[in-house]
Amino acid sequence: MPALTSRVNQQSEEYQTNLAHNAGLLKLLEEQLRLARDGGGAEYTKRHKDRGRLLARERVDLLVDPGSAFLELSPLAAWGTEFVVGASVVTGIGVVEGTECVVIANDATVKGGTSNPYTWKKMLRAMHIARLNRLPVINLVESGGADLPTQADLFVPAGQLFRDLTQLSAMGVPTVALVFGNSTAGGAYVPGMCDYTVMVDQQAKVFLGGPPLVKMATGEIATDEDLGGARMHSFTSGLSDYFARDELDAIRIGRRIVATFHWRKLGTKPGPVRAPLYDPGELRGIASADLRVPFDSQEVLARILDSSELDEYKPGYGTSLLTGWGTLHGYPVGVLANARGVIFSEEAKKATEFIQLSNQVDTPLLFMHNTTGYIVGKSFEQGGIIKDGAKMINAVANSSVPHLSVLMGASYGAGNYGMCGRAYDPRFLFSWPNSRTAVMGPQQLAGVLSIVAREAAEAAGREFDEERNATRSAKIEEQIERESFSFYMSGKLYDDGVIDPVDTRTVLGICLSACHSSVVEGRRGFGVFRM
């Protein structure tokens, strides 16, 4: 397979500008990730520790195999909202007793681990990943239930979590609950619906109604332990399958349970892993500071694919979209990478054929976004850009091999759809800090609205207010800049995390390994293509 050749000049002004810009974004990213790791802050962390409790991330660290990677998902959930960054829960993929699992850990330092609307979105996304990729789920439970002031936004969708747990079990995918503290009201159904439940003595409290509610409803006086303690559930009600002496014992039991799964992956095993020929660290200087300036996607692929090798498909046709086959951490992948932003008819048809071919040979697809969308204009409309774009979107929507998406620049308009954005349910989707997602770029959007307003004024015979238009355009540009920002989109869970470009290869390798826990099989039949 031919190797890609790099022409990056680290001394160039463009490289240095990109490097400085991305370094600033990565510093901001680290600050926000630190906030997520800090949870409820120093005061509540100390209070939690003084009670003899481990922190959520400490529990995760002890649960996963020593020295293995833990891919945290949605760490910026709730960014830019009134809620704490991270949404009071830790989710991710970790290896436990050699088995890749989805881990969900409540952070009790944030309002006692209560769940706000973003908490549920984050947990449901983690459950969806488990379902798509056939990954066992381990819940590390310590939650006060719903954040009651926000119940109107979370009560109805929250029920999906319990449905997902039972459906995973029906699929033969094991679910485990290690209960370290409260799991009350609706949250009591997490241990109730998991296949395996472990409760910690003198800490776990699982009941539908606590002592105050029971007294009000029935007049009965009961203690926490009588109603929902670990000992009662382990020896009287039978809700608990294992009685743990302390938190370390619960984690030990949890690891032992996973070992009994004797889990077997259904996908193909990876081949030899070969490092790229070029330094992934250079990606920080390749990713554009100004998204109006395109960058060479071959330079990106040369730093993430095994041996920097790519067998390009139709290299001389539809050249603003690069397509080809390679391997990443030993797993075969078909790559679609925007080369120069705009998607023309040739690129759309090329992508359609390539997606079909990849499905025929059961090869996962990697979409690398840097697109302003499908081309517009009279000649292109007459040439059938809508039909050709529809073919590409049809192929993406009906492809059944795993899709992985990375937003490495712009992801605008229907180009986001054709390149398998969030709405098209990729197995995983990650963003670089410099990326932007919107209907179109800020200047373009403001310009379109300005043209519409000018034409409306002319049609009504009114004088067009230039000063007001300039003020409005500036506000619109600022709004779109803010709302298309990678952190903002990640805060809404429109991706699975903002990552350092340097980590792209590692993150994708973990994701591909997770995908192969299930069968990797392409679609042999597609919907009707508009010719």
List the topology elements.
Layout lengths: L12 H26 L3 H9 L5 H8 L6 E4 L15 E8 L2 E8 L10 H17 L3 E7 L7 H20 L4 E10 L4 H5 L2 E5 L4 E3 L3 H8 L5 H5 L1 H8 L4 E3 L2 H13 L23 H4 L10 H5 L9 E2 L8 E8 L2 E8 L2 E3 L1 H16 L4 E10 L3 H5 L2 H14 L4 E10 H6 L9 E4 L4 E3 L3 H19 L5 H19 L1 H6 L12 H12 L16
Parallel strand pairs: 3-4, 4-5, 5-6, 5-7, 6-8, 11-13, 12-13, 13-14, 14-15, 14-16
Antiparallel strand pairs: 1-2, 2-3, 9-10, 10-11
Helix pairs in contact: 4-5, 13-15, 17-18
Compute the separation of the termini in Å: 34 Å
Structural class: alpha/beta
Strand content: 15-25%
Question: Any idea what the shape is?
Answer: globular
Uncertain segments: none
Commentary on this structure:
The chain is globular, with a radius of gyration of 25 Å. The mean pLDDT is about 95. It starts with 12 loop residues before the first helix and ends in a 16-residue tail after the last helix. It is about 40% helix and about 20% strand. It has about 525 residues and is an alpha/beta fold.
